[in-house]
Design brief:
heterotrimer, A mainly alpha (433), B alpha/beta (249), C mainly alpha (315), A: 433 residues, mainly alpha, ABC transporter involved in vitamin B12 uptake, BtuC, 74% helix, 3% strand, B: 249 residues, six-stranded mixed sheet, four-stranded antiparallel sheet, 9 helices
Chain lengths: 433, 249, 315
């Protein structure tokens, strides 16, 4: 390394940093290994499997959105096609007794995702921004609608199913029990996460960020933005295909819902709510959204409405997502001025929670009247019993909603002030805030 | 002498409005050539035509004798021509270091490599560090480009332009909006960084133009009304009338 | 045969005009505000459901007036309190906001009116056959729909070409920033444009509701086609949207009435291919493909003319 580089360039990672970096991955692997020991029930293992699949899917989506600035409304196409090809592969391998064990299947799913992304991607990535979003929607609708026409491949409304236990056993495992599926998903999740992280550290990964920030300038440093986007699209399709095939393995079925608008919407929600600006954002989002959808559907009839409202709230008030919000506090933490904002958070929390409680009360009451008008008005939502017919409940919800809103507005201006003083204090200690 | 850049009969119209009318310009290799003229004369359009951002309506643009008009910007860039922008055009969310590194990647042969760790490429590292030191932004290495001061961003802009080792450099009003001291520093930087390369610069600051340029061309209403050495231009009555005014430097 | 062509042409033009009612609002909103309103089809749906509910209480004719006004008011509110706040976060955030909005509107409609179709009836005044072409009775209500669409279209044309506000809209279509510099209250203009655009979509919903099925999946079915129309026509081009609307309206209507298939034309495949995907393609009728024809058109346009039929602006 030249002398100039040794002074001007960022320092190469020291041994301790390298150890910390690789150590994180090792710890993650160990944690994944030990998780079933702590939460061993069948439903927990299924939940973990779903979270793992969602993590791979969301990270693949963020290659497009967060890293290359491409908003796609049709990413489920590659997820779904990976799933369908996985099911067909399992059936073919099982029928012909080929010597291929189940863990190979996600690779087949990934390759099919890659193939279709390569086929459809060149035309799709010609434009960027809003046009790309619309194109992705149109192409997704095309494929999803074709699913009902090409019945032999897509199996019509019922889909195609497979028996995952019929393949060659690996170390005595036939992958019937959920715990074995969990380990399969966990292993592939770790591999996929490492691979996608590595991609961000390559020249292509960096140029993806450049295309996101300024596609015009990218041309003037010698790169064709169309090719950069196309390659990102292909990688994204590859990993989406892996996720789709794992889902197909888990449920032993693939149907047109895998390709549909709802699936595309869910991954968009998960990635955006988690935060598109950081690598771990989609991981956080995947965990959050999977747990929330599983949990909320037990607590209320209209969990999808709450989902949509949470998404809109994130878009309006926290466009950086959960990780964005948390990372915002990092400079304050470093400068030690974080305690300045914490009390204002606690104060603002009270009326905000009241407002949300009022909103939930109102929604659940309205739902009762429109969906089940004939039923007993004593309903239970979010674990709380209340009488939807009682005027006290209506009054409470209105007071909580409006009163909470008015008070919350005030307290959030206080939070703003606290932030300003904490940031200035941080800047005085030399930390950019 | 070889012409680095040549414009032959270049015209550009938007709809019915002719912005550039029949320009013939020749910039010799290694020359520092300034393009001056009143606002709206078409200087930025000329740059856009040369760098491939737009294609001429008729006529041709040549780089080292090869026709480049009609090629997309990235191909022109790969043939050794690089330009800066009047309105700062950097990668706002990436650090200064990463901005410069992006500019270095193609010319160090990395292409679209997705199998190499970018931190393990010594040539990329060295060249980026060199440019960083040259534009005096070493202290601001890790700052996101969007948070730099105006003068720092202009310096970064120039750095990105020259980082790819292009031998023909186009600078579009690099000292716009700078104070006197900043302008002097910028000029020194430009002189240093374009040593041995061909430079075509658009400028309004006459002290910069007369101090830096070997030859000057004057563009008025899409036509070049004069082209020559600084002394010739200063003494040219048509130029005085159209642009410099009687009390010129 | 001739009867089929005439009827299909009438229906196709009708569908095309309905599409244009929506696509025009979408195009103007996109050109002025820079945001593609993902929830535009949702306002169409709101128009249909508001029309249904109000016609139950007050009759169809008041509903025809009130429902679009209500939907337009909601649209104006969305612009003022939602879109404007998100504007500073960029186009992606704006698009995502309207995407979330579409999601929520569909859920709310489902909660209030349920998932099954509602019985939005043609008003008795119009429930008769207008004329008989060959042997088919063409319903008067469809003629009414056609007339209303054309009337609104002509009205829009007059407003845009002859009034001051129309002049501002025209200017903002190509140079939105300049409009602000010229001293117009841009915020109010934006709110007006968004409100009128969504109201137009709602009008389409009110008049289409009785003829087509009024159901909570309306937006999801029509939304993507709407976006295909604006992309094929060329993002930001009103004439392009008009041409594309008619094109897709006619295309789909004609396709639905055609039962031709490759099998019909060339005879069945050999039994060896009977249960493969080749047999699926061979045997599928044009009518079955009709729903995906707009998307096929989209892919073709993108491959050969990416800026759309009459598009001039890049996003």
């Amino acid at each position: 390394m030249s002398e100039i580089a040794s002074t001007a360039a960022p320092p190469l990672p020291a041994t301790t940093e390298k150890l910390r970096f690789y150590g994180t991955w090792v710890i993650a692997a160990i944690a994944l290994l030990l998780l079933p020991q702590i939460f061993g029930s069948g439903s927990s293992l299924t939940t973990f499997s779903l979270i793992g699949i969602s993590i791979i899917f969301s990270l693949s989506y963020n290659i497009l959105l967060g890293q290359t600035g491409m908003l796609s409304f049709g990413h489920a196409v590659y997820y779904g096609l990976g799933g369908f090809l996985a099911v067909h592969a399992i059936n073919i391998i099982g029928a012909n007794k080929l010597p291929l064990p189940l863990p190979i299947i996600p690779l087949i799913g990934g390759l099919s995702g890659l193939t279709f992304a390569a086929l459809l991607g060149w035309v799709s990535t010609q434009r960027s921004g809003t046009a790309f979003a619309m194109i992705s929607l149109g192409v997704a609708e095309l494929i999803a609608s074709s699913a009902l026409i090409l019945r032999s491949f897509f199996g019509g409304e019922a889909g195609v199913s497979a028996n995952r236990t019929k393949l060659l056993k690996l170390f005595g495992w036939n992958f019937g029990p959920q715990i074995q599926i969990y380990y399969l998903v966990a292993a592939w999740t770790l591999i996929a996460v490492i691979a996608m992280y590595a991609l961000t550290r390559t020249p292509l990964g960096r140029m993806c960020n450049a295309v996101r920030d300024n596609p015009e300038r990218v041309q003037f440093v010698g790169y064709n933005p169309h090719i950069v986007r196309y390659l990102a699209f292909c990688f994204s399709g590859f990993f989406a295909g892996i996720a789709g095939s794992l889902a197909a393995i888990n449920f032993e079925i693939a149907n047109s819902a895998y390709l549909g608008a709802e699936q595309s919407g869910t991954v968009l929600f998960a990635t955006y709510i988690g935060g598109i600006g950081f690598f771990i954002g989609p991981i956080v989002g995947a965990i959050f959204v999977t747990l929330l959808s599983l949990g909320l559907s037990d607590l209320t009839q209209v969990w999808q409405l709450y989902f949509g409202l949470i998404f809109i709230a994130v878009v309006l008030f926290a466009p950086g997502g959960i990780t964005g919000l948390l990372m915002m506090h990092r400079p304050l933490l470093k400068a030690g001025t974080l305690p300045k904002v914490l009390p204002s958070y606690l104060v603002a929390l009270v009326p905000t929670l009241a407002m949300i409680a009022g909103l939930i009360l109102a929604i659940e009451t309205i739902v009762h009247y429109t969906v089940n008008p004939g039923d007993d008005p004593h309903i239970k939502a979010f674990g709380v019993n209340f009488d939807a017919a009682s005027p006290y409940i209506w009054a409470t919800s209105v007071i909580l909603l409006i009163g909470g809103f008015l008070v919350a507005r005030r307290t959030w201006t206080w939070v703003g002030h606290a932030w300003d003083s904490a940031s200035s204090a941080a800047r005085e200690t030399g930390i950019a805030a | 002498m070889n012409a680095a850049i040549e414009l032959r009969g270049v015209e550009k119209s938007f709809g019915n409005i002719a912005i550039i009318r029949d320009i013939n310009l020749s910039v010799a290799q290694g020359e520092r050539h300034a393009l001056i003229g009143p606002n709206g004369a078409g200087k930025s359009t000329t740059f856009n035509l040369i760098s491939g951002y737009m294609a001429p309506t008729s006529g041709s643009v040549l780089l080292h004798g090869e026709v480049i008009s009609g090629l997309p910007p990235y191909q022109i860039n790969r043939r050794g021509l690089s330009r800066s922008f009047q309105v700062t055009n950097v990668f706002a969310n990436m650090s200064v270091w990463e901005n410069l590194r992006c500019a270095v990647l193609w010319s160090s042969g990395q292409r679209y490599a997705f199998w190499k760790n970018i931190d393990n490429l010594p040539e990329v590292r060295d060249r980026t560090a060199q440019i960083l030191a040259d534009i005096n932004l070493t202290a601001r290495r890790d700052v996101p480009a969007g948070l730099l001061t105006y003068a720092e961003q202009r310096a970064l802009e120039i750095g990105i332009t020259v980082a790819g080792r292009a031998d023909v450099i186009l600078l579009d009003e690099p000292t716009a909006g700078m104070s006197h001291a900043e302008t002097e520093r910028a000029v020194a930087l430009i002189r240093r960084l374009t040593e041995g390369r061909t430079l075509l610069i658009v400028e309004h600051d006459m002290s910069v133009v007369f101090g830096l340029a070997d030859r000057i061309s004057v563009l008025v209403y899409g036509q070049i009304i004069a082209s020559g050495t600084p002394e010739e231009i200063r003494g040219n009555p048509r130029v005085r009338e159209a642009y410099l005014g009687e009390e010129a430097a | 045969m001739l009867e089929l062509i005439v009827i299909s042409t009438l229906n196709g033009v009708l569908f095309g005009m309905l599409l244009f009612l929506m696509a025009s609002g979408l195009t103007v909103i996109f050109s002025m505000l820079g945001v593609l309103n993902f929830a535009h089809a949702s306002f169409y749906m709101l128009g249909a459901f508001f029309g249904f509910q109000i016609s139950r209480w007050l009759g169809f004719w008041p509903a025809l007036v009130i429902a679009p006004l209500l939907a337009g008011a909601i649209g104006a509110g969305v612009e003022r309190y939602g879109l404007r706040r998100v504007h500073k976060n960029g186009h992606v955030a704006e698009l995502l906001f309207t995407f979330g909005l579409a999601f929520v509107i569909e859920d709310v409609v489902q909660i209030i009116w349920g998932k099954s179709p509602v019985d939005f009836r043609i008003p008795p005044l119009l429930d008769f056959p207008a004329f008989t072409i060959f042997s088919t009775n063409y319903p008067a209500y469809k003629m009414f729909m056609l007339l209303v669409s054309i009337a609104i279209f002509v009205g829009l044309l007059i407003v845009v070409k002859k009034t001051r506000i129309g002049l501002i809209v025209q200017a903002a279509l190509t140079h939105p920033h300049m409009v602000g510099h010229l001293g117009h209250n841009v915020g109010r203009v934006f709110m007006l444009v968004f409100g009128v655009g969504t109201a137009l979509a709602a009008v389409a919903g009110v008049i289409a509701g009785p003829a087509l099925v009024t159901q909570s999946n309306m937006a999801g079915l029509l939304g993507p086609i709407l976006f295909v129309v604006v992309v094929v026509g060329g993002l930001g081009s009103l004439p392009g949207a008009f041409v594309a609307s008619l094109l897709i309206g006619l295309l789909q209507t004609f396709a639905v009435s055609m039962n031709g298939s490759l099998a019909g034309a060339f005879g069945p495949l050999s039994p060896a291919y009977a249960s493969t995907w080749l047999a699926d393609i061979w045997g599928v009728t044009i009518a079955q493909i009709a729903p995906i024809m707009p998307y096929l058109l989209l892919v073709l346009i993108l491959a050969f003319r990416p800026m759309g039929l009459l598009g001039t602006r890049d996003t």
